[in-house]
Amino acid sequence: MRAEALTLSHGGRPISEALSLDFARGTLTALVGPNGAGKTTLLRALHGEHPPSAGRISLDGEALGPANRRRWPARIGYMPQDSRAAAGLTVLETVLLGRAGTLALRLPDAALREAAALLAEFDLLDLAGRGLDTLSGGQRQLVFFAQALARRPEVLLLDEPVSALDLRHQQALMRTLRRLTRARNLISVVVLHDLNLAARHADRVAVLAEGALRALGPPAEALSAPLLSAIYGVGVRVLRDPEGGLLVQALV
Ligand SMILES: Nc1ncnc2c1ncn2[C@@H]1O[C@H](COP(=O)(O)OP(=O)(O)OP(=O)(O)O)[C@@H](O)[C@H]1O
Questions:
Q1: Local structure of 177: helix, strand or coil
Q2: Where would I find the ABC transporter domain in this sequence (predicted)?
Q3: Which protein residue has the closest C-alpha to ligand 1 atom 4?
């Protein structure tokens, strides 16, 4: 997936200009940067719901445009920041689901088995019969991650998918994401505020600030203390942990 010379705007005001970056298959890219940097806007543009005011987005050489905007999201598993709005269903599907109890929905056994395996992986099997609105924020976030995977997408665009998760589930989600990115050769882009999670799990980190790409590369290259201090406006120290990974600390 490729973004070339994108201008992204809100209400006619550009928030990103000349933004170019590539996302390769089998690669997990963490998109990091301060609040308001433009991460969500970029993800929504890649998903096809926020048309750029200039530039080009393409997947396997096919450019996103008016002709394919409606079918574009079919190849993508998208998880927005606000999981209350993340049902990923069309209006028609939502209405039809009102009859789910009486419709005798025909699902292939394999699809049910796959959904059950995803639920089991995230400790959700016991909750399968519960209403979504009765779940905790973190449980709901895991359900929507499972939903994004159940679509069997080629591209995963995840906007802060771990923001409501405890330590164990954060690691579980990121490990699963990394494993499936490799096993299914996915293009995975995940917005994270936790730079240590990005350092630990991502193949590459893209650092966005004020709409501009400030660094792109392996965590040890992209997450440099001077850059992070400059864009976040706090002192930052980057250390090597005993296993050779990175440890990013804000200085108080
Ligand atoms: N619907 C909108 N109308 C006008 N401005 C918007 C809109 N959505 C976002 N913006 C502005 O665009 C800029 C980028 O916002 P965006 O949500 O992409 O940032 P972000 O990096 O995802 O931030 P956060 O980490 O806080 O989620 C911000 O200045 C924001 O105020």
A1: helix
A2: 1-235
A3: 10
